[in-house]
Amino acid sequence: MSKALIILHAGPDEANPRADTAVRLAGAMLADNKDVRLFLAGQGVLILRDWNKASDSTRSLLRELLELGLEVQCCGNSLKAQAIETLPSGVSRSSMKGLSSWISAADEVVCF
């Protein structure tokens, strides 16, 4: 099975839909039977802010993908910089070392 890694460092913003595109691509890759991982860094961790309150389509799709087994990790420094302490179920704190390991294991890497 092909392993894909999506790195999201853009925040969820209607004016710049990179976060939405990254999450939709993750869903398409899962549907294509790829082993997909999503790493959130920089502004990308903002997709987790107000997780239980926000009901936009990007977060809703990410919730569904997590239920389907999408593996998601976040840069710990980015979480700290954005004052995000609580992570949703299925999302874990990581580091650049963790990202490096994921990059090494991936057949495909896409950055948003």
Uncertain stretches? none
Task: Note the overall shape.
Answer: globular
The profile of the biggest β sheet is: 5 strands, parallel
Count of DSSP strands: 5
Average pLDDT, all residues = 94
Q: Could you give the distance between the termini?
A: 23 Å
Residue fraction in strands: 15-25%
- What class do helices, strands and sheet pairing give? alpha/beta
Order of strands, widest sheet: 4-3-2-1-5
Helical content, roughly?
25-40%
Give the SSE order as H and E letters.
EHEHEHEHE
Q: Compute the CA-based radius of gyration.
A: 13 Å
Number of helices: 4
Could you walk me through the main structural features you see in this protein, from its secondary elements to its overall organization?
The chain has 112 residues and is α/β, with parallel strands linked by helices. Helix content is 37%, strand content 22%. It is built from four helices and five strands. Strands 4-3-2-1-5 form a five-stranded parallel beta sheet, sandwiched between helices. It starts with a strand and ends with a strand. The mean pLDDT is 94.
